[in-house]
Amino acid sequence: MPSSAGAYAPGQEKAPSALRDAGLLVALAAAGIEAVDHGDTEVWRWRPDRERPLAQNLTAVVECAASTAERVREVLDSGEFALVLGGDCTVGLGTVAGHLPGSGRLGVVYLDLHGDLNTPGSVRDGALDWMGVAHMLGDEKATPELREFGPRMPLLEGDQIVFLAHDRGQSTAAELESIESRGLVTIPVAAVAADPASAAGEALAVLAGCDRLAVHFDVDCIDFTDAPLSENTGRNIGLSQDAAFAALSAVLLDSRVTALTITELNPDHGAEDGSTLTAFVDRLAAALAGAPGH
User: Fold this and answer.
1) H runs (alpha helix) in 195-237
2) Is the N or the C terminus of the chain less surrounded, counting Cβ atoms within 10 Å?
3) Rounded CA separation 241/225 (Å)
């Protein structure tokens, strides 16, 4: 899903093609995974939206989320595991919507420094990619068009999502209030850094009552100094790349996981020779190789 419509600037729309060029399909095959490439939707490059300054490119974000949902639904209906390559964080709304209505209760592991619980009224930049979860949860202050695009509203209740590697220091006051008022479960980034597998196990335990799981992996959980790949250039915060993938690998061991969404990857930020992206691809293939039945 090569879209940066919900982002701050262009770049993330290049990620799907860059991951392929870095050898993702070859790495998956080498890991024993039979991958079917369903191709890309049309590229949507970020541009400023002066008509909706507090919810920029909203129409394009809604269209991308709806298209993602349709494609994920087709993949799941065929019995395949869905690997969704974004694109900015709003792609993840489509992955969740693509599971619905479906059979059984859906849970979401949100591996991200940020809760993405903002709304157009709580921040001034108008970037929808850090408002996605607010829309999933049906926040009354969220934009109706995105909040209601899916097969039901809200897409999730608060007890259907857990935030893994959350950093309160990267949250706005409105997000912290939402976490408190909704009773949302967050597992701190420090806990993941100290013991990725145990933190992942804690996240999975929170969702013990769910029958299926979608995993959202925001690349900005990785310290930009360790691996400069994220759209968000946060330095000396977040996880090492090894710790981030250790946590992801542990989550993917759960047989309930049916989809993984990769977001917020800007290929322009890595090493010029492509080695940063290649190392990411190798870790991703290894993480997926350990997932049962994927």
Assistant:
1) 196-206
2) C
3) 10
